[in-house]
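Notes, p. 3: input format for complexes.
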Amino acid sequence: MLDNVARIRLAYFAVVVAAVVSSVGCKRAPTYHRDVAPIVTRRCIRCHAGDDASAPPRLDTYESVVGAAPKIKYTVQRRMMPPWGADDTGICRTWRDALWLDNAELSTLVAWTEGGTPEGDPVGRAHVQPDSVPELAHVEASLDLGFDYKPGLGPTSYRCFVVDPNLDRDRFLTGIRVRFSNPQMLAQVTLFAPQTIAAEAEAIKLDQDDPAAGYSCYGSPRVDPATLVSSWTWSTPAQIFPAGTGIRLAAHRKLVAQVHYNVLNAGLNASSRTAIDLQFDDNVREATYLPLAARAMQLAPGKTYAESSAEMTVTAPSTVFGVAPRMHSLGRTMQLDRFRGASPSCVGNFDHWDFYRQRLFTYDVPLRLDAGDRLRVSCIYNTEGRAEPVLQGESIRDEECAAYLYMPSP
Ligand code: HEC
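Output follows (410 residues plus heme C):
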């Protein structure tokens, strides 16, 4: 028998397939100049116009787009490009600044690649601008690691660095921008705030005891208690927190910056210097992350499909502004559902899990919760490569199933 979540998933896939099929109507065949170039300009070339040999392929001329046509079809049909990670069809709600093709754009690109990639007439081509990218309004402090770090492979490529924002009073963080001197290494940066002096001292000790710079850390910052501050990935260099809200950074306290380097992409000898710009605003509501997390996970080894989940019941009316999903490398998809009475609704589908692309997703319209609502997070893993059960934990062999709910104080 199908449980509710499985039913929602089936319905969801049916609707997506129907939407994509129905929008390939009997319109005139798309051409590059009239139909394809505007889509690629808006949605793709911000990342696909670089000269670097290791940069993603250029997609800014007819010839380059024709050359990549089979790969474009493959990657957009599977929603691998643009790189985003949360379904934005509206079936599981929609997200601010989503890097997402709507169904009409997607079917135009696919129809063009299947229709012989005609060039068409450049005369009269619409002039469009790339979609705007979020930017910080101002930068008041920077956390600069201060040196070029050469991670190499293994534990040295999952690092925690103790950093100091040098605050003499509490401030609300409302956005960050991460800068890497080597863009090929751009992967993922998560900021944590140790909540006690003892936890902060423990992080400093872990750093001192580890012979390399920083200390190895994979899931958490390995000190307790520590709370999540921000979850960032490279696809949007600046990340602005939900409007009118911020995360409190305490005066005279340090942070832990967890950096996951993409060494496979950058090469074994590559190094990079990382800096994190901070934007503050004193007139915002304080927000915190509420973790909805599986506590006693045990996944069977050798499975293409293994599931873990966690549930909570909402005790007071509240609002979720964003979700930061966390799994490790076996994770495949994560779904967040709200149950109100007997009726479930999907309120987040993170269907292209990539350990190197974790981030906070902000709802276009915040999610309201009533007392009595239940929230459930379901995580799907592939454990084929494992011979032993996979447990919940912090190390590279462990897994995690957690949705960090970004919630301002009422
Ligand atoms: C935010 C940056 C970004 C955006 C926007 C983006 N891409 Fe990409 N793309 C990349 C990166 C980086 C890669 C390299 C592989 C990877 O990291 O996934 C890539 C890889 C690809 C590849 C595979 C190339 C290969 O050789 O295998 C194709 C095809 C592609 N992108 C097409 C597109 C299309 C079409 C769009 C727009 C609809 C798009 N991308 C939007 C960053 C982006």
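The chain has seven helices and 20 strands.
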